[in-house]
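Researcher: Before we compare anything, I want clean individual predictions. No alignment, no superposition, just each chain on its own. First chain goes here; please echo the sequence and then give the C-alpha coordinates.
Model: Echoing the first chain and its structure:
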Amino acid sequence: MLGFRNTEANRDWQIRKLSHSIDELLGFGAHRFTGAGDARARDGIDETAGAFGDKVTRSLRESVERGARWSAVDWANALAQRTAVYRRTQALFQRFDVLLSPTLSRPALAVDHDAFELITIGGEIAGSIRGAWYPYDWPFNLSGHPALSLPCGWSSDGLPIGLQIVGPWYADRRVLALAAHLERERPCARPMPL
Protein backbone atom coordinates (compact mmCIF):
# COMPACT_ATOMS: atom_id res chain seq x y z
CA MET A 1 0.00 0.00 0.00
CA LEU A 2 1.25 3.46 -0.88
CA GLY A 3 1.01 6.30 1.58
CA PHE A 4 2.60 9.07 3.53
CA ARG A 5 1.70 10.53 6.89
CA ASN A 6 2.24 14.20 7.56
CA THR A 7 1.38 16.21 10.64
CA GLU A 8 0.08 19.76 10.73
CA ALA A 9 2.95 20.78 13.02
CA ASN A 10 5.73 20.05 10.54
CA ARG A 11 3.92 20.70 7.24
CA ASP A 12 5.07 24.30 6.72
CA TRP A 13 8.66 23.39 7.66
CA GLN A 14 8.63 20.51 5.17
CA ILE A 15 7.31 22.73 2.37
CA ARG A 16 10.02 25.34 2.92
CA LYS A 17 12.68 22.62 3.25
CA LEU A 18 11.54 20.97 0.00
CA SER A 19 11.72 24.27 -1.86
CA HIS A 20 15.27 24.85 -0.61
CA SER A 21 16.17 21.23 -1.40
CA ILE A 22 15.08 21.64 -5.02
CA ASP A 23 17.22 24.77 -5.28
CA GLU A 24 20.19 22.96 -3.71
CA LEU A 25 19.79 19.81 -5.84
CA LEU A 26 19.60 21.80 -9.03
CA GLY A 27 22.00 24.52 -7.93
CA PHE A 28 19.97 27.62 -8.64
CA GLY A 29 17.29 29.95 -7.32
CA ALA A 30 14.02 31.22 -8.78
CA HIS A 31 15.32 34.77 -8.93
CA ARG A 32 17.67 33.91 -11.81
CA PHE A 33 14.92 33.19 -14.29
CA THR A 34 12.19 35.71 -13.53
CA GLY A 35 12.96 37.74 -16.64
CA ALA A 36 14.44 35.25 -19.12
CA GLY A 37 11.21 34.53 -20.94
CA ASP A 38 10.10 38.13 -20.61
CA ALA A 39 12.76 39.45 -23.02
CA ARG A 40 11.51 37.23 -25.83
CA ALA A 41 7.90 38.10 -25.03
CA ARG A 42 8.53 41.78 -25.65
CA ASP A 43 9.13 41.25 -29.37
CA GLY A 44 5.60 40.08 -30.02
CA ILE A 45 3.76 42.09 -27.39
CA ASP A 46 5.35 45.52 -27.22
CA GLU A 47 4.06 46.79 -30.55
CA THR A 48 0.47 45.61 -30.03
CA ALA A 49 0.03 46.14 -26.27
CA GLY A 50 -0.75 49.84 -26.69
CA ALA A 51 -3.84 49.05 -28.75
CA PHE A 52 -5.35 47.09 -25.85
CA GLY A 53 -4.74 49.73 -23.17
CA ASP A 54 -6.23 48.73 -19.80
CA LYS A 55 -7.07 45.22 -21.05
CA VAL A 56 -3.39 44.26 -20.73
CA THR A 57 -2.81 43.05 -17.17
CA ARG A 58 -0.29 44.75 -14.93
CA SER A 59 1.66 41.50 -14.60
CA LEU A 60 2.06 41.20 -18.39
CA ARG A 61 3.04 44.87 -18.78
CA GLU A 62 5.63 44.61 -16.00
CA SER A 63 7.02 41.33 -17.38
CA VAL A 64 7.46 42.93 -20.79
CA GLU A 65 9.15 45.96 -19.22
CA ARG A 66 11.55 43.71 -17.26
CA GLY A 67 12.31 41.74 -20.41
CA ALA A 68 13.08 44.93 -22.30
CA ARG A 69 16.02 45.50 -19.97
CA TRP A 70 17.67 42.21 -21.00
CA SER A 71 20.51 42.36 -23.51
CA ALA A 72 21.40 39.66 -26.03
CA VAL A 73 24.23 38.65 -23.68
CA ASP A 74 21.75 38.31 -20.79
CA TRP A 75 19.54 36.14 -22.99
CA ALA A 76 22.47 33.92 -24.06
CA ASN A 77 23.56 33.54 -20.42
CA ALA A 78 20.01 32.58 -19.41
CA LEU A 79 19.94 29.91 -22.12
CA ALA A 80 23.25 28.53 -20.85
CA GLN A 81 21.84 28.43 -17.30
CA ARG A 82 18.75 26.67 -18.62
CA THR A 83 20.97 24.00 -20.15
CA ALA A 84 22.76 23.62 -16.81
CA VAL A 85 19.39 23.20 -15.06
CA TYR A 86 18.44 20.49 -17.57
CA ARG A 87 21.71 18.63 -16.95
CA ARG A 88 21.43 18.84 -13.14
CA THR A 89 17.81 17.71 -13.25
CA GLN A 90 18.55 14.83 -15.61
CA ALA A 91 21.43 13.73 -13.34
CA LEU A 92 18.95 13.27 -10.48
CA PHE A 93 17.39 10.42 -12.45
CA GLN A 94 20.58 8.41 -12.14
CA ARG A 95 19.55 8.07 -8.46
CA PHE A 96 15.74 8.31 -8.64
CA ASP A 97 13.10 6.82 -10.94
CA VAL A 98 10.79 9.80 -10.43
CA LEU A 99 10.65 12.92 -8.29
CA LEU A 100 7.56 13.64 -6.17
CA SER A 101 6.62 16.99 -4.68
CA PRO A 102 3.57 19.04 -3.85
CA THR A 103 2.27 20.82 -6.93
CA LEU A 104 1.85 24.08 -5.01
CA SER A 105 2.98 25.21 -1.59
CA ARG A 106 -0.54 26.26 -0.56
CA PRO A 107 -4.11 25.99 -1.86
CA ALA A 108 -5.31 28.21 -4.69
CA LEU A 109 -5.04 31.97 -4.44
CA ALA A 110 -8.04 34.24 -4.91
CA VAL A 111 -8.88 34.71 -8.58
CA ASP A 112 -8.21 38.45 -8.28
CA HIS A 113 -4.84 38.05 -6.49
CA ASP A 114 -2.34 40.55 -7.90
CA ALA A 115 0.46 38.56 -9.55
CA PHE A 116 3.07 40.86 -7.95
CA GLU A 117 1.58 40.80 -4.46
CA LEU A 118 3.36 38.63 -1.91
CA ILE A 119 1.56 35.48 -0.78
CA THR A 120 1.08 34.05 2.69
CA ILE A 121 1.53 30.45 3.80
CA GLY A 122 0.41 29.41 7.25
CA GLY A 123 -0.38 33.04 8.10
CA GLU A 124 3.16 34.26 7.30
CA ILE A 125 4.36 36.22 4.29
CA ALA A 126 6.20 33.68 2.14
CA GLY A 127 7.31 35.68 -0.90
CA SER A 128 6.39 36.07 -4.55
CA ILE A 129 4.05 33.78 -6.45
CA ARG A 130 6.88 32.33 -8.53
CA GLY A 131 9.27 31.86 -5.64
CA ALA A 132 6.83 30.80 -2.93
CA TRP A 133 3.60 29.47 -4.45
CA TYR A 134 4.94 27.21 -7.18
CA PRO A 135 8.62 26.70 -6.42
CA TYR A 136 8.29 23.00 -7.30
CA ASP A 137 6.86 23.52 -10.80
CA TRP A 138 8.93 26.07 -12.65
CA PRO A 139 12.28 24.21 -12.53
CA PHE A 140 10.78 21.39 -14.58
CA ASN A 141 8.95 23.76 -16.93
CA LEU A 142 12.36 25.32 -17.49
CA SER A 143 14.21 22.01 -17.97
CA GLY A 144 11.49 20.43 -20.10
CA HIS A 145 11.12 17.28 -18.01
CA PRO A 146 7.76 15.47 -18.19
CA ALA A 147 5.64 16.29 -15.16
CA LEU A 148 2.03 16.15 -14.14
CA SER A 149 -0.11 17.16 -11.22
CA LEU A 150 -2.34 14.51 -9.72
CA PRO A 151 -5.19 15.43 -7.34
CA CYS A 152 -4.33 13.81 -4.03
CA GLY A 153 -6.48 15.53 -1.42
CA TRP A 154 -8.48 18.55 -0.38
CA SER A 155 -7.70 21.56 1.79
CA SER A 156 -9.83 22.43 4.79
CA ASP A 157 -11.58 24.94 2.48
CA GLY A 158 -12.42 22.20 -0.02
CA LEU A 159 -9.79 23.21 -2.58
CA PRO A 160 -7.83 20.52 -4.43
CA ILE A 161 -4.29 19.61 -3.39
CA GLY A 162 -1.95 18.22 -6.03
CA LEU A 163 1.00 15.83 -6.10
CA GLN A 164 3.57 16.58 -8.81
CA ILE A 165 5.25 13.62 -10.50
CA VAL A 166 8.38 14.36 -12.56
CA GLY A 167 10.32 11.94 -14.73
CA PRO A 168 13.47 11.94 -16.85
CA TRP A 169 13.33 13.11 -20.44
CA TYR A 170 11.45 10.69 -22.70
CA ALA A 171 9.90 8.94 -19.67
CA ASP A 172 6.40 10.32 -20.15
CA ARG A 173 4.99 6.77 -20.00
CA ARG A 174 6.66 6.20 -16.62
CA VAL A 175 5.12 9.40 -15.21
CA LEU A 176 1.68 8.53 -16.61
CA ALA A 177 1.91 4.91 -15.39
CA LEU A 178 2.72 5.99 -11.84
CA ALA A 179 -0.13 8.51 -11.90
CA ALA A 180 -2.55 5.82 -13.12
CA HIS A 181 -1.35 3.44 -10.39
CA LEU A 182 -1.79 6.08 -7.68
CA GLU A 183 -5.27 6.96 -8.98
CA ARG A 184 -6.27 3.30 -8.76
CA GLU A 185 -4.77 2.74 -5.31
CA ARG A 186 -5.70 6.07 -3.72
CA PRO A 187 -8.60 7.57 -5.69
CA CYS A 188 -9.27 11.19 -4.90
CA ALA A 189 -12.22 11.77 -7.19
CA ARG A 190 -15.01 13.92 -5.90
CA PRO A 191 -16.97 16.74 -7.47
CA MET A 192 -14.94 19.89 -7.80
CA PRO A 193 -16.29 22.81 -5.74
CA LEU A 194 -17.88 25.46 -7.93
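Researcher: Okay. Second chain, same rules.
Model: Second chain and its structure:
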Amino acid sequence: MPADAVTADFCERCLAESQDESPTSVRDFNGFGRSFLGGKSDCATCGSKIRTLWVLFVAFPVVPVGSYRYKQLSSTAGFTGSRGTFVARRMTTQWDQVVRTWAAAIVIAAVLIPLFMFIDKLRGR
Protein backbone atom coordinates (compact mmCIF):
# COMPACT_ATOMS: atom_id res chain seq x y z
CA MET A 1 0.00 0.00 0.00
CA PRO A 2 1.49 3.40 -0.91
CA ALA A 3 2.64 5.54 2.02
CA ASP A 4 0.25 8.37 1.13
CA ALA A 5 -2.69 5.94 1.32
CA VAL A 6 -1.58 4.90 4.82
CA THR A 7 -1.16 8.46 6.10
CA ALA A 8 -4.60 9.46 4.78
CA ASP A 9 -6.21 7.12 7.33
CA PHE A 10 -4.64 8.77 10.40
CA CYS A 11 -5.23 12.18 11.98
CA GLU A 12 -2.44 14.73 12.39
CA ARG A 13 -1.80 13.83 16.06
CA CYS A 14 -1.46 10.11 15.30
CA LEU A 15 0.81 10.84 12.33
CA ALA A 16 3.01 13.03 14.52
CA GLU A 17 3.45 10.40 17.25
CA SER A 18 4.25 7.54 14.83
CA GLN A 19 6.80 6.73 12.14
CA ASP A 20 6.17 5.97 8.47
CA GLU A 21 6.99 2.27 8.90
CA SER A 22 4.39 -0.44 8.47
CA PRO A 23 4.78 -4.15 9.34
CA THR A 24 4.99 -6.78 6.63
CA SER A 25 3.60 -10.31 6.63
CA VAL A 26 1.31 -10.24 9.65
CA ARG A 27 -0.14 -13.75 9.69
CA ASP A 28 -0.64 -16.58 12.07
CA PHE A 29 -1.61 -20.12 11.24
CA ASN A 30 -2.94 -22.40 13.96
CA GLY A 31 -1.36 -20.26 16.67
CA PHE A 32 2.05 -19.83 15.03
CA GLY A 33 3.24 -16.65 13.32
CA ARG A 34 2.75 -12.94 13.95
CA SER A 35 -0.35 -11.18 15.21
CA PHE A 36 -1.43 -7.88 16.76
CA LEU A 37 -2.60 -8.08 20.36
CA GLY A 38 -3.82 -5.54 22.88
CA GLY A 39 -5.24 -2.12 22.33
CA LYS A 40 -4.95 1.20 24.11
CA SER A 41 -5.13 4.95 23.55
CA ASP A 42 -8.07 4.93 21.14
CA CYS A 43 -8.02 8.09 19.05
CA ALA A 44 -11.37 9.92 19.03
CA THR A 45 -10.44 11.69 15.78
CA CYS A 46 -9.33 8.89 13.43
CA GLY A 47 -10.35 5.77 15.38
CA SER A 48 -6.89 4.21 15.53
CA LYS A 49 -5.42 2.52 18.61
CA ILE A 50 -2.00 1.39 19.78
CA ARG A 51 -1.45 -2.36 19.40
CA THR A 52 1.65 -4.52 19.74
CA LEU A 53 2.77 -6.99 17.08
CA TRP A 54 3.81 -10.34 18.56
CA VAL A 55 5.50 -13.54 17.47
CA LEU A 56 3.13 -16.32 18.58
CA PHE A 57 4.01 -19.86 19.58
CA VAL A 58 1.08 -22.20 20.25
CA ALA A 59 -1.13 -19.07 20.30
CA PHE A 60 0.87 -17.53 23.16
CA PRO A 61 2.71 -14.23 22.73
CA VAL A 62 6.44 -14.91 22.97
CA VAL A 63 8.36 -11.98 21.46
CA PRO A 64 7.06 -8.44 21.00
CA VAL A 65 8.08 -7.18 17.55
CA GLY A 66 7.01 -3.59 18.20
CA SER A 67 4.07 -1.31 18.86
CA TYR A 68 2.07 0.40 16.13
CA ARG A 69 -0.66 2.98 15.73
CA TYR A 70 -3.20 0.57 14.17
CA LYS A 71 -6.45 1.05 12.31
CA GLN A 72 -8.68 -1.79 11.10
CA LEU A 73 -10.14 -1.06 7.66
CA SER A 74 -12.15 -4.25 7.08
CA SER A 75 -12.63 -7.62 8.68
CA THR A 76 -14.29 -10.89 7.68
CA ALA A 77 -14.67 -14.06 9.71
CA GLY A 78 -14.62 -17.46 8.15
CA PHE A 79 -14.17 -21.14 8.94
CA THR A 80 -10.37 -20.90 8.95
CA GLY A 81 -10.22 -17.72 11.03
CA SER A 82 -10.61 -14.03 10.50
CA ARG A 83 -9.03 -11.90 7.82
CA GLY A 84 -8.89 -8.20 7.45
CA THR A 85 -7.10 -5.22 6.11
CA PHE A 86 -5.47 -2.63 8.29
CA VAL A 87 -3.02 0.25 8.24
CA ALA A 88 -0.33 0.65 10.87
CA ARG A 89 2.50 3.05 11.70
CA ARG A 90 5.44 2.21 13.98
CA MET A 91 5.70 3.71 17.47
CA THR A 92 8.02 3.21 20.39
CA THR A 93 7.42 -0.13 22.05
CA GLN A 94 4.68 0.21 24.66
CA TRP A 95 6.23 -1.82 27.48
CA ASP A 96 3.17 -1.47 29.73
CA GLN A 97 1.11 -3.19 27.03
CA VAL A 98 3.81 -5.87 26.59
CA VAL A 99 3.87 -6.64 30.33
CA ARG A 100 0.06 -6.80 30.53
CA THR A 101 -0.06 -9.20 27.55
CA TRP A 102 2.64 -11.45 29.02
CA ALA A 103 0.85 -11.41 32.40
CA ALA A 104 -2.45 -12.40 30.80
CA ALA A 105 -0.73 -15.22 28.88
CA ILE A 106 0.90 -16.53 32.09
CA VAL A 107 -2.44 -16.51 33.93
CA ILE A 108 -4.15 -18.33 31.06
CA ALA A 109 -1.37 -20.92 30.91
CA ALA A 110 -1.48 -21.35 34.71
CA VAL A 111 -5.18 -22.20 34.43
CA LEU A 112 -5.14 -24.29 31.23
CA ILE A 113 -2.11 -26.50 31.91
CA PRO A 114 -3.43 -27.91 35.23
CA LEU A 115 -6.91 -28.22 33.71
CA PHE A 116 -5.60 -30.32 30.80
CA MET A 117 -3.51 -32.40 33.23
CA PHE A 118 -6.61 -33.00 35.37
CA ILE A 119 -8.71 -34.00 32.35
CA ASP A 120 -5.93 -36.32 31.19
CA LYS A 121 -5.80 -37.91 34.66
CA LEU A 122 -9.59 -38.45 34.63
CA ARG A 123 -9.25 -40.32 31.35
CA GLY A 124 -6.84 -42.68 33.09
CA ARG A 125 -3.71 -41.93 31.15
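Researcher: What stands out in the second chain?
Model: The longest strand covers residues 60-78. Additionally, Residues 3-122 form one domain.
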